[in-house]
Amino acid sequence: MAPKNATASSSRVATNLKTINGKAGPSTILKNKNKKRAVQEVSEDEDDDFASVGSGIDMSDDEEVEEGEENEDEEAFPEFDSEIEDEVDQADEGDSESEELDDEEESGSESGYNSSDIEAMYDEEEDNENEDEEYSPLTSPSSSHKELSTDEKLSKLIAKNSIKPDESLGTDAKISKAKEGVGKLVPSKFVEGGYKREYEDYEAGYGSESSTEDNPNTVGNIPMEWYDDLPHIGYDVNGRKIFRPAQGDELDKFLSNTEDPAAWTSAEDRLLQQSVQLSDKELDIIRRLERAENPDADYDPYQPTIEWFTGEGNERVMPLSAAPEPKRRFVPSKWEHKKIMKIVKAIREGRIIPNKPSATKPTVYQIWSDSDQANLEHAMYMPAPQLPPPKTIESYNPPEEYLLNEEEQKEWEEAEKEDRKIDFLPSKYDSLRLVPGYKNLVQEKFERCLDLYLAPRTRKVKLNIDPESLIPKLPSPKELKPFPLATSVLYRHPENSRVRSVDTSPDGTFVATGSEDGIVRVWDLGNGREIWKWNLQSGAIQHIAWSPYKDESLLIALVAGKIAVLSPLALVAPSIAANTLNHVNTAFASSAATTKMGSGKEIKGTELIKWVRPNEKERERGVLVFIEVPGTPKQISWHRKGDYFATVASDASNKSVLIHQLSKHATQSPFKKLPGQVQKVLFHPLKPHFFVATQRYIRQYDLSSQTLIKTLQSGVKWISSLDLHNKGDNLIIGSYDKKLAWFDLDLSNKPYKTLRYHTKALRSVVYHPSLPLFASASDDGTIHIFHCTIYQDLMQNPLIVPLKILRGHKVTDGIGVLDLSWVNGKPWLVSSGSDGEVRLWCS
Amino acid sequence: MADINIESTGSTSATGSVVQLPINLFTRSTNDAIPQSTYLIPASWRRFQLSELINKVLQNNSDNGKKPIPFEFLINGQVLRGSLENWSKKNRGNDEETTIDIEYVRSTLPPQEVGRIEVEDWVSGLSLSRKGYTLLSSYLSHLQILPLSSASTSSTALYTLPLPTSLGATSCTWVSPQSQEKDILLAAGGIDRLTHVFSIPSLSPEDNIQLPKEIYTLHGHTQPISTIISSKSGKEIISGSWDGLLNLYTLPNSEPNEHQISSEPLNFLTGQGNKKKRKLEKENPREPIEGLMDNDSTGEGGWRRIPEINFKGHLGRIGGSVWDKFDQEKIWSAGWDGSVRGWDLNTGINSMIRQGPFDKSALCIDQFTANGTLVTGNMDRTICLWDTRQATSLISLTLQTSSPIPSIKTHPTSSFTLASATYSGIIQIWDIRSPKNSLFSVSNVNRKERKVTKNGKVLGERLLALDWDGEVLIAGGEDGEVGIWNATGA
């Protein structure tokens, strides 16, 4: 313990550390000791305890002091600390293993040292002595020490008191260590009463039997015959010549061989030119080498294995991966089950009979007795494909025309084997007995066998399915009449201005069209006469829609920045006109102002929305209200009761969807934030639901609870139009990527069917308000009419039957049919095209 | 003699390689009937030879002082055009054994166009009820009476009667019977939901002392008028409208001196200025609703009258109506709901309903004078014959056309011939014994190359109105012209 403590504490003081570094000897000894102590941890602990017990009675007190001292240490030499430790590291280089131990010991030793009591110190020294005694067999011989004389003790005491306690600790220890038998104090000759330390000759305890150690000749590794002519054979350490030892003659050699019993165990040392007696150890090594054993006597090839990772208590607790145990570890194997069931089946069918007594073969039987019977066909027996029968050319005596002439023969011979048309040379023999053996026989048979072996033959089970039966059975269009077939009426627009929107009035008498010349026209559905028109003079009419409420005659037209509420007052009965006016104008009456702001306080920017009363002349013509809105509204959707309507203006950011109420002249923006660029909106025909179609998704909102009910994933790239079936359970959308998707709202949020039959983008899809029909219009100039039966039985899928392709609209500027509208109660369809034509298609 | 002739031809054919076909000739008219027998006729014979044959059998030659009658031959509802051989090859596959049944009818000459009258706007209604004059109504919102002479291509109108609003007139009819020469009444229905009855002093130009005037304004419809008919006596007018009602108005014998109902508001401005407006209205009650473009129609309104009876039954627009040709107490109407209904005028009861398919919207109706069969022109491009005398029958015959039939007219005497106008601009004359294709069809290709009317309405080829009195046929429509043809039917 003491020497260890000494090193540890010495590391604290730089000066002493230097001395240690200077003297490599002690430090190495200490290191050795450390190593040994590392092996004997247990005993060391005991030592620690012992030391602590010895250092003081009250442990706690000691600790306190220790803490204080440590603190002091740190305060006093904060920088040193690290440096010193570094240096210690350097000193202990390669001894990283023992470092930790060093630290531990440090603390232990400190606890031992921290008592400033001298006696304790002495005790410790005694301890050290004891320890040394204990460890004596392990220590090198040089570490043996002698009893200190009283004089020495005295001088040590003086030295101790003359140094500051902190510093002294290490020094002390060092001194004590140095004193402790490494050298001995002798009275100095120069200083009266002084002592001088005399050290014993140091013997480096390498512990090796290297012959260089005791080899006095230092000539080095040179051929010794160079000294053959010289009287000496080399030089010793001090440079003096080593003279050739006397060489006995052959007789002497013989005598020594015969007389000296140890002569045969000697060998000649060439450097010293004399025979050296081999030690027992060396002889043992030789003996081991002879027996091809490990020369090291200490090596134990049969030492017990140390189980680091296996065996009881060494199981790996930490799994290698965090993945949970797969299910297959717990469930019975399916494959095994299959295999077993196969066997079970075979047993049931009688193909395998368990515990069948093996058929006893008669000891003597005829091998060929059943060879004349045909082979029973195995279930998997498959005859090899037959070779073609021999032809005339293969005959031994073929007609002349089959024989090759010389050129052909030459050609045949020159050709590659694979390129030959026939793989033999036809030849003619006069008689069968002249025919030689066929030399390719073996090769051909081999190839045939190889073919049969390499080409696996299986019985193919052919599916005999009539492709016709795979086509779903749809009723023929003839059974599904009536549906639109041909153009009956044209609603002619002047100068072929593009008609963006068309709508038929709910009673089926009027057709309203909105064209790009900014005029809303009302037509007689039956004969195509324009009977009313409004010139809104604000650019193209984007969309128009009749109010679905039959007791009023209201039409809404969308132009840039404006919504116009129109009514063909002169065309309708006075009672209906009065209803209409009452409905639309009451809000004006309640507030005297001709302009009313929209009442959407919570949304910023809704104050821009104004309900403006048109001038008298316009009102006389049936323009009832203008609603000024941000952006260009593109689509309008009426609520079924005809009081609310929603508009979409894609370019009006968060105010793109607006819901207007006619009776109150109120506008609200239902969405604070929109889920994307809104394409179309739609009111549910029966429930208070609201559909919002963005580019790819359709969201269904509940207006009463203001919640999102579901999001439909269309699977198309850009929705252009949508319509809801009058029962409210089915929805169709058209897309600019040529697709039409049918959603069953009860079924899934993915399309029930996606139809792709148009060659260009779809512009409009519309359900018939009462008949089981829907139509889609596309930029390819065609309108497709479909039949759709929606069954009351929820389990039955809707029946969709394509009925008719209506052609007639011309494609202009890449745009075909723009809008569709069914005539209420009739299987008639009104379509508007970019060619400026609006057509009525009748059954 | 005829027999000899046939035999001689037969013998020649026997010697040569001429194919002979066995035929049966029959007819439905009693006058032209020939004895039933099977003839062997050379296959190369055409209509003319067959007609000659029948005339010979009937002995219609100059010896008897009778003119030969041209006949038309129908085989299986198809008019024979070309030789018998061709027909046989086409339809029978050269089966020369089976007897061919050939019906023969008196031939009508194809219509000859004799003139065209240019009108400023679409023609909506035409009437030839009064011999020598054409009554037409147009979407320019007026009635015109034109003298009908063979060279009346550019004749000026005798009368032009404007309607009070410029929304347009949809139909017109003569009200007064043809015998009445003075104070003739005529009526027009308009998109303004009113029927306007006008009175003109006389048709002879020298009597134009009194100005024509609107004498009655018939209220009662909530939607535009689609059809007007008047009784033979000229005392009753029935109007049909888009609202599905038929209204019977009885005209008083002498001019009344009070309105039956108050006037409709002509102005729909509400709010504070309303009372002022009403005051203004009282001072100047005839301020017209500003119509489309033009302001030229400011006719005075007549005495407002209300209907005597409402005939309610049709579920959609009334397409057309016709007074029963036999029973003055009965009218027929056809509607967009696909039904044909008969109404009893005295009781107002819907005495007969024939409900066809709901999409067979009828645009017009007429009745054959001979047998009372009703014929309708429909939106689904068919002409349907309704035999109303048999209780079970619905549609007895359907003639397929290429486009909707807005107007149809039966021959005044024949029970087989009718004329129809189509939306594709073609006038067809049908013999219902030949239902597969029409006897003649003429189109209004001769029309002038006008694109737009004065008030900005686009012109097209569509025909909207047609009338036929058995000799003269007139038709007009979207083309802004009235074409006049000489067309005689059997």
TrEMBL record, chain A:
Gene Ontology biological process: maturation of 5.8S rRNA from tricistronic rRNA transcript (SSU-rRNA, 5.8S rRNA, LSU-rRNA); maturation of LSU-rRNA from tricistronic rRNA transcript (SSU-rRNA, 5.8S rRNA, LSU-rRNA)
Coiled coil region boundaries: none
Organism: Kwoniella pini CBS 10737
Bias type Basic and acidic residues, positions: 144-155
Lineage: Eukaryota, Fungi, Dikarya, Basidiomycota, Agaricomycotina
Name this protein carries in UniProt: Ribosome biogenesis protein ERB1
Main location: nucleus
Similarity remark: Belongs to the WD repeat BOP1/ERB1 family.
Database matches in PROSITE patterns: WD_REPEATS_1, WD_REPEATS_2, WD_REPEATS_REGION
Domain of life: Eukaryota
Domain BOP1 N-terminal: 227-484
Biased composition range(s): Polar residues: 1-19, 208-220
WD repeat residues: 492-533, 755-786, 817-843
GO terms for cellular component: nucleoplasm; PeBoW complex; preribosome, large subunit precursor
Subunit comment: Component of the NOP7 complex, composed of ERB1, NOP7 and YTM1. Within the NOP7 complex ERB1 appears to interact directly with NOP7 and YTM1. The NOP7 complex also associates with the 66S pre-ribosome.
InterPro entries in alphabetical order: BOP1/Erb1, BOP1_N_dom, WD40/YVTN_repeat-like_dom_sf, WD40_repeat_CS, WD40_repeat_dom_sf, WD40_rpt
Residue segments, region Disordered: 1-178, 203-223
UniProt feature, compositional bias: Acidic residues: 59-108, 120-135
Subcellular localization: Nucleus, Nucleolus; Nucleus, Nucleoplasm
Record keyword Repeat present: yes
GO function term, MF aspect, one: ribonucleoprotein complex binding
Keywords, in A-Z order: Nucleus, Repeat, Ribosome biogenesis, rRNA processing, WD repeat
Biological function: Component of the NOP7 complex, which is required for maturation of the 25S and 5.8S ribosomal RNAs and formation of the 60S ribosome.
UniProtKB/TrEMBL annotation, chain B:
WD repeats: 218-259, 374-396, 469-490
BP-aspect Gene Ontology terms: maturation of 5.8S rRNA from tricistronic rRNA transcript (SSU-rRNA, 5.8S rRNA, LSU-rRNA); maturation of LSU-rRNA from tricistronic rRNA transcript (SSU-rRNA, 5.8S rRNA, LSU-rRNA)
Gene Ontology molecular function: ribonucleoprotein complex binding
Biased composition (Polar residues): 259-273
Main location: nucleus
Region annotation (Disordered) ranges: 259-299
Biased composition range(s): Basic and acidic residues: 280-289
Origin: domain of life: Eukaryota
UniProt entry keywords in alphabetical sequence: Nucleus, Repeat, Ribosome biogenesis, rRNA processing, WD repeat
Alphabetical list of InterPro entries matching this protein: NLE, WD40/YVTN_repeat-like_dom_sf, WD40_PAC1, WD40_repeat_CS, WD40_repeat_dom_sf, WD40_rpt, WDR12/Ytm1
UniProt keyword Transport present: no
Protein family: Belongs to the WD repeat WDR12/YTM1 family.
Subunit-structure text: Component of the NOP7 complex, composed of ERB1, NOP7 and YTM1. Within the NOP7 complex ERB1 appears to interact directly with NOP7 and YTM1. The NOP7 complex also associates with the 66S pre-ribosome.
Name of the protein described by the UniProt record: Ribosome biogenesis protein YTM1
